[in-house]
Amino acid sequence: MPRIGSEMNIVDPILFHCRHQPEALAFCAPGTDLITYGRLEKTVNNIIARAISVGLATGQVVGVAVRQPAFHAAAIVALARMGIVTASFSGPMPRDIRFDAILTDRGQSFPGVKTIVVDPGWIAGDGHPTKLTYVARGSDICRILLTSGTTGESKGIAVTHDMVLGRILRYNTTYPHAAMCSRVFCDPGWATALGFQLFVYTLGRGAAFFVRGDTAANTLRAFEFYRIDHLVAAPAALAELVVEYDKHRCRHAVDLVHTAGGALSKSLSERVRSRIGSTLISDYGSAETSCVAAAPVSAIENIAGAVGYVTPGIIVEIVDDADRLLPTGEEGIVRIRGDYAATEYVNDPEATRRFFRNGWFYPGDLGSTTRDGALIITGRQTSILNLGGEKIKPEIIEDVLCAFMEGLEGTAVSVVNDAGVEEVWAAIAARGPFDENALRAHCESKLAATFVPKKFIILDQMPRNEMGKISRPAVAELVQRKR
Q: What is the pLDDT of residues 446-460, one digit of tens each?
């Protein structure tokens, strides 16, 4: 795919629409925030003026830890226009990113970093633009994306204006239906690559971007009132939405449902397509690479483990432990390279050496490819359970657990028992009551005896990261506490 030119700032298209259609809806958090393109431009200009007054300048790295959605959205645009590198986060401050300042409305300070508390005064003013001495573009870094943190701690990926624009340009090929949608609901937050890139993509073409509102009821009312036509959510969030759809008797169907960030079960897929929208797209990717594989679920649902077809501009290879290329269809280690992919982690040379080698990114997944380009993911290298020399992918156990009943999630972990022997336990989160003895019998009928969970630990809900993926380290910690 041809590479993007180097004269554009990522917010140039957004500001174009601010002037071209000032009355059009730009952003909405149902029940709390609604902002037009004209208002967005004035808000951005006021934030720029205030940011300059408190000493923020081109080239700095600024964290955005702001809960108020409309301000957060406008701050991303304003700081990018100023040539400031931003990173959004809602939890603890990312360890390896060296911030010059952090904007926050949480009423807390961040040790060792200049903390700037934002208030309504930041968006007050005449809305007139400030003449900037330098407008970042092209190869200038504009954003630090946070990885999903499945290993317990997220890492930073620095992306340039060209990289972001190139990634979102590929959406037109990968998700052709998306370009025709004008009301987009995005559940993944701005800290995630998908959430941030979809935000820039949506506003950059003059459409309206929606996030969760103050209540589920208000969010679903907005679905119907504004006729949301594109919905993006991880499988866990989709499961919640299906329940809320039924609870609030929502009848609105969206044109395109886009899911990423985890495996989608067949039962959930069927419920989503029958309840929320019949066109359901599966997406496999990461902050490091953007979208790697995608496909309509209907095209891959009969291929076990398939996450999509490898997208244009991306190369996926399956190799063994010695990096030798394996034949098509044989399971091995997944490695990826492509246009607009990252080559390192911010200020983390050790992780960079582990995951980036010889121009390839190694996500830690196991899988294979088919002759027609489908990518199959079978597990994670780091999550394999080793029980007295017998190895098994926890995903195999988890598929059996989740097949027991609708609304049940299970995560398999290895626990050393009182005798010093490793055995499988399972953390269970369910939306309704279930019979533990029946669950055990179900597992015994599907799994070898060694891999039937010895204990079931009941959790209120599975701990998840920003992208909605289950955090295995957090689950293991909860299991240890409850043992």
A: 887 878 999 999 998
